[in-house]
Specification:
The protein has 14 helices and no strands. By secondary structure, it is mostly helical. The protein has one domain: Na+/H+ antiporter like fold, CATH 1.20.1530. The relative contact order is 0.18. The model has no long low-confidence stretch (mean pLDDT 85).
Amino acid sequence: MLDILAITTPIFLLIGLGYLAMMLRLFSKEQVQGVGIFVMYCALPALVIQALTQNPLEEVFNPQYLLAYGLGSLLVFLGTLAVMLKLQHKPLAAGAIQALGMSASNSGFIGYPIAAMVLGSPAAVFLALNMLVENLLIIPLALILIEMGNQAGNDLGKMLHQTASRLVRNPILIGLMIGVMLAVTGLTLPSPLAKTIDMLANAAGPAALFVIGGTLYGIQVSGMATEVAQIVTGKLVLHPLAVFSIFLLLPETDPLLLSGALLFACSPMISIYPLLGQRCGMQAISAASLMVATLSSFLSISLAIWLISHNGLFAIS
């Protein structure tokens, strides 16, 4: 248990440092957002490029991982959406937001730093794979459904075009495209540029965790307990179980792939969740869910590490 705490405690101490910096007014909201922009537009794309250029391409784009993690996430999204619409009679946009909160992990800001401490260098490869699932499948699907719910009767083609336009400007996907191009062509970056990318990649984990902590400051949970509990339980319990179950159904599951997928799935939802919730009047619920899920993920991630280590899937040094 002490070994597990040695892994998880520094992660949440960094989150707490960001929260404390905001509470003591050492940072303003705008300054924390600035650090977040640095992580999103500089550090994480560099990390993805690093992962794609330092590993053989056939190891990076692992079909088994993409199938299991992608299908598990999609099943949670569609199952949640069906429950929200059919049983709880939620509007389409609200149902899509809740489904998104349960099926899209904060892979870059929390999943990667934790997986890097547990698994080492393969964590960057898993990050690249998760970014494909989240940015090309789950998030676009949610955005399309939210727009359909908010603008019933509008041209579907226009909504698809708007979603595609956002995707091509996504810095993570741009990093993926650059990394794939370099990996396929065999080109190597000049040494100064390669070292710059390495430095940016190394900054991704600590800076991302600090941003999460600063973002959580000031969020209120009162009056939303039922909906918040649903979203948090779905994200930290149902999502990992779905991904884990799909992996078990596949033949000859690689223990390293299973371990990485489980750690990422046990992470809380994406950090932009409250911003997307704002599109259908669910910003407060989304923000409260993000805070509760982030704090609760200390338990879910610790439990995942304990279960995996005691089943011999990987050794925690």
